[in-house]
Amino acid sequence: MRTCKKKPLCDKQVLFESFHGTNLNDSPFAMMRELAKDPTFTIYYTSKKELMGEHRKILDAYGLNRVQLIPLGSRKYQKILATSRYLVNNVSFPTYFIRREGQVYLNTWHGTPLKTLGKKMAMGIQDMSNMQRNFLHSSYLLHPNRYTMDHMMEDYNLNHLYTGKVILSGYPRNAIFWDKDAAAAVRKQYGMDGKETFAYMPTWRGAMSSGANKGGYEAEVRDLLTKFDSALTDKQIMYVNLHPLVKDKVPIEGYKHIVKFPDDVDSYSFLNAVDVLITDYSSVFFDFSITRKPIVLFMYDYDAYMAERGMYMDVRDLPFRKIYTMNEMLAYLHENDKQADVNSAAYDAYYKMFTNYDAPDNIQNLNDMLFYGKAPKFEVIDYAENKKRPRNVYLVGKNDHKGWAKELEQQLHSMEAPVAVFLRRDFNELTLKELTDKYNDWLDYTVIDTQMFLSLPENIKLFFSRERNKYNCDAVFAREVFRILPHLNIQSVTAGDDSYRNRSIEQAVKNERKG
User: Fold this and answer.
1) Residue 29 · residue 173 · CB < 8 Å
2) CA–CA distance, 177 with 30 (Å, rounded to integer)
3) Phi and psi for 297 in degrees, rounded to 5?
4) Which helix (H) or strand (E) is 509 found in, with range?
């Protein structure tokens, strides 16, 4: 990756990525399909190596033959990531990624949040590390409504650390929900005409994505699908799209009335064609609600789920059908009026709050600004003022001794405009408790992985610098500061322990400030 950064940027080269190469869908895919109409752009799309065959079929089905797939993490991927003028991602690029001068990086994210994120995840604050870092490196962050902007900017500590621009515009992926002709074509293609169709899209049950115990939930899903299948009639079809963490563990096969979402069409193009969405705590309902079709929140485990995972709102207040038992859910499948309980006034208020920025021309408007330099037709909020404010960085030491919490408190309260940097590997219950109880409301902090990403010559120089003090490695450590906190006006760095890494970063910034 380091050698790739010496190559010049390719002006009309774009790298799109969705969910770390596991899917070709979401807003990056919608933007790519529109941009692919312009033959002057060279377009790459990330794919996991084992999925490239499947993804190639999807591209071919859309007539996107000239879009090139690149395997995630490969040498070619690193080269394209380092040399593309434009980058579009709905999650995050790898931990070694640093946006180069002249690159334009749009992070679209992938949904209006219902469940708490970032520092509001009491047992998962450490999981925000590379996601937060990607946000900080982005030229643009896309938010589909002010509710999303407020929560994402606050809960990833971006309000005072982010230096790019925020775009307020509906998600490109949602433009499909205005296309009735496309819905009719999908219904015809998959034999849905004359049938009542349901999409079942449950979320993952768990507080964090890492280290989760999926076995019990897999059995639970199989039991639910069996009961659904028994209740559905020959005039009904249920299409199932499970969360990525469990979809490979629960094969959707052997059922009479249930099938999985097809692999040769992106999920939102397919979702646009169904009659009813059944979900639970998944934010997919925010997008599907644009259609004004029936939505069911099937929350059979409401109390248990709420005890484990926080919410930004009381889901029971949403203007959709809420169902809490399997018997009630099965009875609903046979109701004639599936929106009988919807409060029209409440729905209109919801629609204004969450979908006011959605429009059928959002893809074109966003592409025009990003790739063609045209004036934006949406609101853009500039956070460049954060570049000017002097900041003082505290590299938090390892939480391995009794006085750690007191030292942290004293140091942070003695600093002006502090930014704390925590290492993900050092998180434990005390770290989480301290942040949640004392610092979340006022402290700007980041969470980072420990590894520094160096070229072979840099690793050799670093070794001899550490062992024999032979080389000056200030440039390496200054780059590490930029990888963590890009574009900030950093006045000082204070090491919270005597580790070589932290001491070297502190010294490198001191030397840089001296000129």
Assistant:
1) yes
2) 12
3) -100, 100
4) helix 500-514
Say yes or no to pLDDT of 154 above 50: yes
How many CB atoms sit inside 10 A of residue 498's CB?
Answer: 8
Tokens read off for 354: 């969450």
At 19, list the tokens.
């969910």
Distance from C-alpha of 126 to C-alpha of 130, rounded to nearest angstrom: 9
Lookup result for tokens 């995050």? 92
pLDDT tens column, 41-79? 999 999 999 999 999 999 999 999 999 999 999 999 999
E-state strands within 134-280:
140-143, 165-168, 196-200, 236-240, 258-260, 276-279
Instruction: Return contacts of 210-214, CB within 8 angstroms, 24+ apart.
Output: 210/127, 212/245, 214/245, 214/246, 214/249
Please tell me the distance from the alpha carbon of residue 27 to that of residue 109, in angstroms, as a whole number: 8
Cα–Cα distance between 118 and 433 in angstroms, integer? 15
What is the length of the chain?
515
How distant is the alpha carbon of residue 147 from its chain centre?
16
Beta-carbon neighbour count of residue 291 at 10 Å?
19
What is the distance between the alpha carbons of residues 158 and 165, in angstroms, rounded to a whole number? 11
Summarised one tens digit per residue, pLDDT across range 498-509 is 888 899 999 999
Instruction: Report yes or no: 202 and 176 within 8 Å, Cβ to Cβ.
Output: no
